[in-house]
Design a protein that fits this description.
- The protein has about 230 residues and is α+β, with helices and mostly antiparallel strands.
- It has 2 domains: about 5-105, DNA double-strand break repair and VJ recombination XRCC4, N-terminal (Dna Repair Protein Xrcc4, Chain: A, domain 1), CATH 2.170.210.10; about 110-225, no CATH class.
- The protein has 6 helices and 7 strands; from the N terminus they run ββββααβββαααα.
- The chain has a 7-stranded antiparallel beta sheet with strand order 1-2-3-4-7-6-5.
- The two termini are about 20 Å apart.
């Protein structure tokens, strides 16, 4: 899972994958660095940096690193195309350290790890927004039916104004990339080209203006597979 961390007054994203090898990723949303480490090497490095602990349990190492990522002091140092990451934290009473030596990754790797994840997040949020819109409109119909049968609601604090989807969306629909992922061909391209697990959107039909907007924002590299 990606997390945010402030380092030298700058925002970074960090992620630690543990299967099949341990992969640590760091990004400033412009570039991506990572390192893959086998479990035995992690254990050796942990003991080397913390000689007073002399950890004999790999699980202890992993527990410390897992906690350290979310609550620790993280220092970074640029060295050519590498990023040295020094993690410091306190476990009970002992100060502990761990170091990652990250290498800068290609644009394709950045696209796979960062861009695709951001696109997936946008699609998920837009899908949930669509579901909320649908629920609100159903609630309005339910309220109208109630008023027809039983009259107006007597308690003022329970009264609501009819939900207006267009008014709610307002100018945001014309800014940034809002709404472009409701264009089903884009979703289909992402699924077929990159294997993303995306549900089909139940969105409004896309008009000519929206179609032009999609073509403007979706980059050409969506049409080609990434290189390994």
């Amino acid at each position: 899972m990606w997390k945010t961390v402030q380092i030298n007054n700058s925002l970074y994203l960090i992620n630690w994958k543990r299967d099949p090898v341990h992969t640590f990723l760091l990004s400033d949303l412009k570039e991506l660095w990572s390192e893959e480490v086998e479990t035995d090497e992690m254990h050796r490095r942990f003991n080397e940096l913390n000689p007073l602990i002399n950890s004999r349990s790999v699980q202890y190492d992993l527990k410390f690193l897992s906690n350290a990522i979310s609550s620790s002091t993280v220092k970074i140092q640029h060295v050519e195309n590498r990023m040295l990451v020094d993690v410091e934290a306190v476990d009970d009473v002992y100060p502990l350290r761990f170091k990652w030596e990250l290498n800068k990754k290609s644009n394709d790797m950045f696209f796979k790890e960062i861009t695709l994840n951001l696109i997936s997040s946008v699609i998920t949020l837009e899908k949930r927004q669509d579901e909320l819109f649908s629920l609100l409109m159903k609630k309005d119909k339910e309220k109208c039916e109630y008023v027809r049968e039983y009259g107006e609601i007597s308690r003022d604090f329970l009264k609501t104004v009819k939900f207006d989807k267009e008014e709610f969306i307002g100018e945001s629909s014309n800014s940034g990339m809002c709404g472009i992922f409701s264009y089903q061909p884009v979703v289909d391209d992402l699924k077929s080209t990159y294997g993303m697990k995306l549900e089909k959107r139940k969105a409004d039909p896309v008009d000519d203006k929206q179609a032009k907007k999609v073509k403007q924002y979706i980059p050409k590299f969506l049409k080609r597979p990434t290189t390994k």
